[in-house]
Backbone:
């Protein structure tokens, strides 16, 4: 099994969720996060004063899937989250050793 974490722009969340549903993802965790990479934030004006916004709002999607679905999931995220501009985000893939559903005790693929 694999855990996929995707950091994307907030306005792309609905599109990515729909694309993931089409490739068979039936559950995910979404968190509002802030961060920066090469984009390095930006400058804004507020009541006539200029200030730096170092951490930009992003959405983090976490999904645990079987190995066979990995490439479909990555492709769905890439196609829908990409704008071609800096700050589109990143995808991280991790190995998952074990998953347990607390309610039933089911494990691994059955628990996902």
Residues:
């Amino acid at each position: 099994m694999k855990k996929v974490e995707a950091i994307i722009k907030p306005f792309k969340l609905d599109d990515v969720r729909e694309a993931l549903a089409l490739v068979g993802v039936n559950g995910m965790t979404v968190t509002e996060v802030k961060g920066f990479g090469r984009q390095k934030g930006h400058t804004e004006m507020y009541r006539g004063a200029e200030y730096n916004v170092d951490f930009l709002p992003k959405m983090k999607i976490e999904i645990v899937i079987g190995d066979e679905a990995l490439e479909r999931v990555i492709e769905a995220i890439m196609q829908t989250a990409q704008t071609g501009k800096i700050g589109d985000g990143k995808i991280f893939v991790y190995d998952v050793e074990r998953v347990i559903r607390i309610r039933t005790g089911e494990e691994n693929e059955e628990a996902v």
Remarks:
- The mean pLDDT is 90.
